[in-house]
Write a structure and sequence with these properties.
Blueprint (H helix, E strand, L loop, with lengths): L3 E11 L5 E12 L4 E5 L6 H9 L6 E6 L2 E2 L5 H11 E4 L11 H10 L6 H10 L15 H13 L5 E5 L7 H18 L2 E6 L2 H4 L4 E4 H4 L7
Parallel strand pairs: 3-8, 3-9, 6-7, 7-8
Antiparallel strand pairs: 1-2, 1-4, 4-5
Helix pairs in contact: 3-4, 3-5, 4-5, 5-6
Length: 224
């Protein structure tokens, strides 16, 4: 059984006129444990919504999202939150760091919602991503590339089985983007986590052996 298996997944929103706007309509998608897969898709193609459905941030209208054999779509919101904290890491394009907390505290707070805070492991992750000397710094004192590294450490802090990355290099220059992508992939391999990354940047996508076109997966894009 694959780590992630999706069947007939649908998410739609009501329009101001009372109609329905279907954003995601994916018949089948799967991801093996430890695999690293990129999804290609332009802005507005539903990629972020797709990741948010997998993460349990959004609930689908219909369909199944089987993560390690358990259906994310058939549990309560609280259960999805617990599942996300324990089994998923999420790297956002905007990083979503808490500005009033230090680098170390940002990683520890991510742990608090999962298996519990392990300060030594949080510090070791930050050391691994090159920030061992900045544990007491605040996000505003870091470069954009360094903030991205904090986000990577936080996403891996709870030993996730799956890491989701939503345009994770979108706010970085070319050199930092290349280095950040290499770091994300390397640390995921070291931690045994599968990686599902979405991007429209062909330079980023070219580094992946497995690239799928989300505009072909998402049948909502073919709807009139």
């Amino acid at each position: 059984m694959p780590l992630l298996a999706i069947h007939d997944l649908v998410k739609a929103y009501r329009t101001p006129g009372g109609g329905e706007h279907r954003v995601v309509d994916v018949r089948e998608f799967s991801l093996e444990a430890g695999a690293q897969v990129a999804l290609r898709g332009e802005s507005g193609s539903g990629k972020t919504t797709f990741l948010n459905l997998i993460a349990g941030i959004l609930a689908p209208d219909s369909g199944a999202i089987l993560l390690d054999g358990l259906d994310q779509a058939r549990v309560s919101e609280a259960a999805r939150d617990r599942r996300r904290a324990e089994s998923l890491g999420y790297i956002f394009q905007t990083f979503n760091l808490l500005q009033g907390h230090t680098v170390l505290e940002n990683v520890e707070l991510g742990m608090a919602f999962g298996r519990g805070v392990d300060r030594a492991y949080a510090a070791s992750l930050l050391q691994r991503v090159g920030l061992g000397g900045k544990l007491g710094h605040f996000p505003r004192q870091l470069s954009t590339g360094q903030q991205q590294r904090v986000a990577v450490a936080r996403a891996l802090a709870n030993h996730p089985k799956l890491v989701l990355a939503d345009e994770p290099t979108g706010n970085l220059d070319h050199r930092n983007a290349r280095e950040s992508l290499a770091l994300i992939r390397e640390v995921c391999r070291e931690c045994g986590a599968a990686l599902l990354l979405v991007s429209h940047d062909e330079g980023i996508l070219s580094g992946f052996e497995s690239v799928q076109d989300f505009t072909r997966l998402n049948r909502a894009l073919a709807a009139p």
